[in-house]
Specification:
The complex is a heterodimer.
Chain A (H helix, E strand, L loop, with lengths): L1 E4 L2 E4 L7 H15 L3 E5 L6 H15 L6 E6 L2 H22 L6 E4 L3 H4 L11 H12 L1 H9 L7 H10 L7 E3 L1 H11 L3 H8 L5 E5 L1 H4 L1 H7 L7 E5 L5 H9 L1 E4 H24 L1 H13 L2 H8 L11 H5 L9 H19 L5 E3 L1 H12 L3 H5 L1 H11 L9 H15 L4 E8 L7 E9 L3 H10 L2 E6 L7 H6 L3 E6 L9 E8 L16 H17 L3 E6 L2 H14 L1 H8 L1 E4 L4 H16 L4 E6 L3 H5 L9 E5 L9 H14 L3 H18 L9 E6 L6 H4 L4 H4 L9 E2 H16 L26 H22 L1
Parallel strand pairs in A: 3-13, 3-14, 4-7, 4-8, 5-6, 5-7, 8-13, 15-20, 15-21, 16-18, 16-19, 17-18, 19-20
Antiparallel strand pairs in A: 1-2, 9-12, 10-11, 11-12
Helix pairs in contact in A: 1-2, 2-3, 8-9, 12-22, 13-14, 13-17, 13-21, 14-20, 20-21, 24-25, 24-26, 24-33
Chain B lengths: L30 H12 L14 E7 L14 H19 L4 E2 L5 H11 L10 H12 L7 E8 L10 H10 L2 E7 L5 H10 L3 E3 L3 H10 L17 E2 L3 E2 L11 E2 L12 E2 L2 E3 L6 E2 L4 E2 L6 E2 L2 H8 L9 E4 L20 E4 L6 E2 L1 H11 L3 H8 L3
Parallel strand pairs in B: 1-2, 1-3, 3-4, 4-5, 6-13
Antiparallel strand pairs in B: 7-10, 8-9, 10-11, 12-13, 14-15, 15-16
Helix pairs in contact in B: 2-3, 2-7
The chains are: A alpha/beta, B alpha/beta.
Chain lengths: 774, 377
């Protein structure tokens, strides 16, 4: 169907459109018009992806000079593939409707592991191995050496691509990873490099977050993407953690040992080269004197995405003399390494800021701040000069040099914590140096600065206003959309008491309480008797789950549950978990029924969907607060309070609720799906917790579903499940418009729709208020 | 106004906001809505479609007697309630399908007795869908192809303990054209959805007791026949009921063949149905002759099964205002008060809602049509 969104002609490849999709597009268009950033929340299963794609592509076609590229960032490879499939559908619709073959190029990009077609390299199991092997076949100096020695192994796909592929652009079309591989095989070109090269002129790029947020990768891949791009972060509810992880460094004794080996290898290689090819080192020296001028020019002319590891100031200067020659630099690294080793020999926990660390290192081993800042660049240069084939071996020393650069560059936003042992095992010495980023805005800042529009979207982004604050940007639109439903297919229940009126809560004081554990067991037992097929239960942590399950076993609750359903448990071992998941699904499929016990923030809670019978109920035992005794978290909370005026409690609750919402949201993956959402903790009934749930869940929580006992919840659940089991006529009682040949004008519907709009307005108002305050 | 059948006790049901259903019209009156509701409740009828059906049915009813049957959400508990409804079902079933069988027995009385006995069963353990289906299948697969093979499962439990892969069994059922229907007492179970979808059966989950009854009664109607099912001629006997005249001194009381194996029931009697082939005596029809294996039915039985083949056409609904002439129902002669009337497509007689339902559900023929056929004679 064709839609008219404020004057923009949008092709939509389905016959029906939900009102929330329409309003989503409307908001999106306004964001693009204003050339600003946006935060949009819409529940999963309402066609978020297709709304995004069809509007942005329509915009691209209407204003080719305003928006040149869409960069769609998703989290996992299956999600990337899903986006590409939607895109394919849209493109087919376009060519059917307009009758002309469009010249859009859309492609997915993933790691070498997923794209390599070299028979030997692609058979390697780990991504790092593939990367290393590939590098050893395709690095420029290897290929240069090959001119003199043709017996060296080489990747014929890369050679072919290098010889021909760059001149011939990828023909327009939609390419997923397999399409790229097929195309590569046909032409004999390397799909990975072809894709990396093609994203520069592609209209739509779909890839993982890390290609944009992780400075090490972004520098390689996304540096040259056009400024007039729209960047979309899908499933972005955890974006702050991704940012923080990409900037944080953890150093253990193992890292240091490996680093020591790396440094020794460097030393040996330098000696060897000095005997054979001293001119090369001299050439490098000359280049370093001139400094990083080129990088500076490029950044000024706005060609590159800025790299947060490469701060502006160092671009202006030459590499300092103390680390300019290769030997001196290796000596410098040695000293730095020894210093780190001495720091790791502590007996008690140390927490210090970056300036304190710098002062200490200056006092102890006389290392200045300036050479530290150049460390990362200098190492890259050295590795290039020494023609080291397998970069993967040098990950340890790269990590250390990145750490050196970061610690000397940012005086704020980072903290250094050295822990001699883990809290749980105080007798086993396992010193770790956490260099932890506390400010997610550092990693994402270049993205906001460089690109015209950045859209942050997910099914669970409530409360919306916190994201702009922690990511430090000013959105032009913030909106939350609800789900219009033909029937009430979700049933959130807050169970606050056991049948014996004992308050249910996972809070610290009652964690060991026998009565609470028994009541939790009773809840699961009762639910296992009335919920068909699959139940997913989430605990707040692995430790808590272990305690409770052990206790249930002793009380015989597990045995009773097993009469109704089989029990599977998620563990920290990935292989074990995927095995459990497989068996769980089998048990749901053949009618035996199963319960999956898993952990909020675990693999299951983030990435696995439990559609239809795989998840008829989700039970959330307790509020999934992050482990608050962690020093890293404490430091981050302190930082948030000081820098962004976000109170600790607010942030903790926000974080807990977004994970809870993620967990319970696993069960509803579309409008035909249905499921129970059971929040088993009395604290959920409080307004501050409840108010932070996404609006599409909040809407269905009424006074009758607050602070229930187990029995009451069972009654409500039984009724709900019977209602849902009635044959579901696919009536489009949701106000949906049927597409016509003409551009359909939009009708404002009554009821729910108007309500949705009112909430939207409220969001606007509160945002305006924020701006006013700011 | 007729009260809806009480669902257990009022306070045990969910919280109902009955007033929210009511809507005021422009003048602020509630009359229109109230009438609408009344009308809807009267008109709970199925759509009558003409389909080819099988009139000889073989139906296996499997009742789950697992632990979950003890649940008290149906009063007094699920098992008792189910069995009570099953008695009604068996009666209705034989009334509508006299020449069919439930669990390979023709005698409704036997079933009811068995059901009564089952009330005292203690429900323990987990059910196995696989085992029950397999057992039913073992007997059903020997049934001739012109009859339907059906299994009706009343499933209360949400879990099943199977000795083997149930999906293999579903394939077998499908290939043998066994139609499996399930009535769930608690919630939708995936494996039942697949089972019924694959074998072409119905899957329903009850809301409450009255809904349960409704769903059961749905299974009284024979299922539509698939075009592939074979047709064949069957030998049937139509014995006359003969009672020896009281004056006849030679008449000797004799035993009915059907009561020979059971100690209970009436003993000697004078009259009865005599098999036209072997002269065995039976007191009740329909029955399969124990001696020569002939199916014995009476003509009205056959006729009642027959109406499934030629169902009465649905009457055309039209608003009362359009009616010309007298506003009287042709059947009950009462005044037409409801806003809709129903017209027979062949004789154009007008009926009210109640009579329409009665004619379609019970009579199965339009009284006016029959009346007009008779008059020319």
């Amino acid at each position: 169907m064709k839609l008219n969104i404020e004057g923009l002609l949008v092709y939509f490849p389905y016959d029906y459109i939900y009102p929330e999709q329409y309003s989503y597009m409307l908001e999106l268009k306004r964001t693009l018009d204003a050339k600003g950033h946006g935060v949009l929340e819409m529940p999963s299963g309402t066609g978020k992806t297709i709304s995004l794609l069809s509007l942005i592509i329509a915009y691209q076609r209407a204003f080719p000079l305003e928006v040149t590229k869409l960069i769609y960032c998703s989290r996992t490879v299956p999600e990337i593939e899903k986006v590409i499939e939607e895109l394919r559908k849209l493109m087919e619709f376009y060519s059917k409707e307009t009758g002309e073959s469009n010249n859009f190029l859309a492609l997915a990009l993933s790691s070498r592991k997923n794209l390599c077609i070299h028979p030997e390299v692609s058979s390697l199991r780990f991504g790092k191995e593939v990367d290393g092997k590939c590098h050893s076949l395709t690095a420029s100096y290897i290929r240069a050496q090959r001119h003199s020695n043709p017996n060296l192994p080489v990747c014929r796909f890369y050679e072919e691509f290098d010889a021909v592929g760059r001149q011939v652009p990828l023909p327009p079309g939609v390419y997923n990873l397999d399409d790229l591989k097929d195309f590569g095989r046909r032409k004999g070109w390397c799909p990975y490099y072809l894709a990396r090269y093609s994203i520069l002129h592609a209209n739509i790029v779909v890839y993982s977050y890390h290609y944009l947020l992780d400075p090490k990768i972004a520098d390689l891949v996304s540096k040259e993407l056009a400024k007039k791009s729209v960047v979309v972060f899908d499933e972005a509810h955890n974006i702050d953690n991704v940012c923080i992880d990409s900037m944080s460094v953890n150093i253990t004794r193992r890292t240091l040992d490996r680093c020591q080996n790396n440094v020794d290898t460097l030393q040996n290689t330098i000696h060897k080269i000095k005997e054979t090819d001293a001119a090369k080192l001299r050439e490098e020296y000359r280049r370093l004197v001139e400094g990083l001028k080129e990088a500076n020019v490029a950044r000024e002319t706005d060609i590159y995405l800025a790299n947060p590891v490469l701060p502006d100031e160092i671009l202006q200067e030459a590499v300092p003399g103390t680390i300019r020659t290769a030997e001196h630099f290796v000596g410098f690294l040695r000293r730095f390494l020894e210093y780190l080793k001495s720091r790791l020999r502590v007996q008690h926990v140390v927490q210090e800021s970056a300036p304190q660390f710098l002062k200490d290192i200056f006092d102890k081993v006389c290392i200045d701040r300036k050479p530290l800042r150049f460390c990362a660049e200098r190492l890259q240069s050295l590795l290039r000069t020494l023609e080291i084939a397998d970069i993967a071996d040098f990950s340890a020393v790269t990590l250390i040099s990145n750490f050196a650069t970061l610690v000397s560059t940012y005086s704020q936003g980072f903290t250094i914590i050295i822990e001699p042992f883990e809290d749980r095992t105080p007798t086993i010495a396992n010193p770790v140096l956490h260099f932890s980023c506390m400010d997610p805005s550092i990693a994402i800042k270049p993205v906001f600065q460089r690109f015209q529009s950045v859209i942050i979207t997910s099914g669970t982004l409530s409360p919306l206003d916190i994201y702009p604050r922690i990511l430090d940007f000013r959105p032009v639109t913030m909106a939350s959309f609800t789900m219009t439903l033909a029937r009430t297919c979700l049933c959130p229940l807050i169970v606050g008491r056991g049948n014996d009126q004992v308050a249910l809560s996972s809070k610290f004081e009652t964690r060991e309480d026998f009565a609470v554990i028994r009541n939790y067991g009773n809840l699961l037992l009762e639910m296992s008797a009335i919920v068909p097929d699959g139940i997913v239960a989430f605990f707040t942590s692995y430790v808590y789950m272990e305690n409770i399950v052990a206790s249930w076993y002793e009380q015989g609750i597990l045995e009773n549950i097993q009469r109704n359903k089989l029990i599977f448990i998620e563990t920290q071992d990935a292989a074990e978990t995927s095995m459990a998941l497989e068996k769980y699904q089998e048990a749901c499929e053949n009618g035996r029924g199963a319960i999956l016990l898993s952990v909020a923030r675990g693999k299951v809670s983030e990435g696995i969907d439990f559609v239809h019978h795989f998840g008829r109920a989700v039970i959330m035992f307790g509020v999934p607060y992050v482990y608050t005794q962690s020093r890293i978290l404490k430091a981050r909370l302190e930082y948030l309070r000081d820098q962004f005026q976000i109170r600790e409690n607010d942030f903790l609750t926000f974080d807990a609720m977004r994970h809870a919402a993620q967990c319970v949201g696993r069960a509803i993956r579309g409008k035909t799906d249905y499921g129970l959402m059971i929040f088993a903790d009395k604290r959920y009934a409080r307004a501050d917790k409840r108010g932070k749930l996404p609006r599409w869940i909040q809407e269905h929580i009424n006074d009758g579903s607050l602070n229930l006992t187990v029995d009451e919840a069972v009654q409500l659940a039984k009724h709900f499940l019977r209602q849902m089991a009635q044959p579901f006529r696919q009536v489009r009682s949701t106000p949906a418009t049927k597409g016509t040949e003409q551009v359909s004008t939009f009708v404002v519907w009554k009821g729910r729709w108007r309500h949705g709009y009112r909430c939207l307005n409220l969001a606007f108002q509160s945002q305006q208020l924020n701006n006013f305050v700011a | 106004m007729d009260e809806e059948p009480e669902r257990a006790k009022r306070w045990e049901g969910g919280y109902e906001r009955t007033w929210e259903v009511l809507k005021e019209d422009e003048s602020g009156s509630l009359k229109a809505t109230v009438e609408e509701i009344l009308f809807q409740s009267k008109r709970k009828r199925c759509v009558y479609v003409c389909v080819c059906v099988l009139i000889m049915r073989h139906l296996y009813v499997v009742i789950d007697c697992s632990r979950s049957m003890e649940d008290q959400d149906l009063k007094p508990n699920r098992l008792t309630s189910t069995l009570k409804l099953m008695e009604a079902f068996v009666d209705e079933y034989f009334d509508q399908n006299p020449i069919s069988q439930v669990c390979l027995h023709r005698n409704p009385k036997k079933h009811i007795a068995a059901l009564k006995k089952a009330v005292d069963t203690v429900c323990v353990g987990e059910p196995s869908l696989y085992n029950s289906l397999n057992q039913a299948l073992q007997s059903l697969k020997h049934m001739p192809g012109h009859t339907s093979r059906e299994i009706l499962i009343i499933l209360s439990s949400l879990t099943t303990c199977d000795p083997a892969n149930i999906y293999e069994l579903i394939k077998t059922l499908k290939s043998l054209k066994v139609r499996v229907s399930v009535i769930g007492l608690s919630a939708e179970v995936r494996v039942c959805t697949v089972l019924t979808r694959e074998t072409g059966g119905l899957y329903h989950v009850i809301l409450d007791e009255s809904h349960f009854k409704e769903l059961l009664m749905m299974h009284v109607k024979p299922p539509p026949a698939s075009s592939s099912s074979e047709c064949s001629l069957i030998r049937m006997g139509f014995p006359q009921h003969t009672v020896a005249a009281l004056t006849d001194q030679d008449a000797k009381p004799s035993f009915s063949m059907s009561h020979l194996d059971s100690s209970s029931g009436p003993g000697l009697s004078l009259g009865g149905y005599f098999c036209p082939q072997c002269h065995a005596k039976y007191t009740e029809l329909p029955v399969e002759c124990k001696v020569c294996g002939l199916t014995l039915v009476s003509a009205p039985h056959l006729a009642r099964s027959f109406h499934h083949l030629f169902p009465l056409q649905a009457f055309v609904e039209s608003p009362l205002e359009e009616l010309q002439g007298d506003r009287y129902c042709q059947a009950c002669q009462g005044e037409l008060k409801d806003k809709s009337i129903f017209t027979c497509t062949s004789c154009h007689s007008v009926f009210c809602v109640e009579c329409d339902v009665f004619i379609h559900d019970t009579l199965h023929c339009c009284p006016c049509c029959i009346h007009s056929q008779v008059t020319p004679l």
